[in-house]
Write a structure and sequence with these properties.
CATH class of the largest domain: Mainly Alpha
Distance between the termini: 28 Å
CATH architecture of the largest domain: Alpha solenoid
Helix content: over 70%
Low-confidence stretches: 271-286
Number of strands: 0
Order of helices and strands: HHHHHHHHHH
Shape: flat
Largest sheet: none
Amino acid sequence: METGTFAAQSATRLLERLAYQIHHTRQNGDAEAVHDLRVAIRRFGQSLALFKPVFSGKEVKKIRRRLKGLMELTNDARDCDVGIELLPESELPGAPSLVEKLQKRRKEAMRMLVPELRRWRARKTSSKWRSALTPNGGSHTPLEQTVAGRLPKLARKFLKDGDRATSAGDLHHVRIEGKKLRYSMELFEPVYGAAVAGWLEAVKDVQSQLGKANDCRAVRLLVADIGSDADVEDWLKKRQRKKTREFHKGWQAAADALRGAVAVIKNPPEHKPVGRSATVPKVALRA
């Protein structure tokens, strides 16, 4: 299959998922809906980044800017959701009042987000964006060649950044790079078939460990902003250090697995034909 065909079909499918998630979040703005909206934004955005030579028009650049703005509007609500779930685990006297403050802050965050979600439908954004997903430059390149040129770079960057990560900011950056790599692997699953499963597990494990550490970091910032509680902050610091140690302990095994996969990634199996209809794997729709 040519890259242009696969890119257009995949990006359109992910756009449809994003449109659904925007509607769902507008109707039911609970924690799960906001999380799934963020995932849909990241997945669609990553498809545009992967196929940048195919979608090179000015309209696609505008789309990516709009996606960034929409993601930023979800940040506060998502951080509040994390804090509301995490703080009760401390069982500290100051946690309930902080949770109450976070619940109020979340309502304010949703009051900022929901109008933007309403404008999406009013402006017929899905239709406009769909028309921009027209393959042009680089569209006739074989898909396997595109994958071999893009995926190894993402994997090597993820490994390099993970090896060097020390600070909380470094770890957060590695977590984001891991999301890009994971979503790209899932998108290219038709090329690699079952081989992707093992690589994905390694990335998911790292993401999970980094996610837990980053949750503590994000909630610490929130707690400091809404009214500091020394005991709660101390608990969050200790938990963050613990989760960071767990990441460093498990990183080498995950990194070794991915390094072994890079050679395979660079040379997709020629005997594995890509189906005539390029569909996004079910796993790519959530999480």
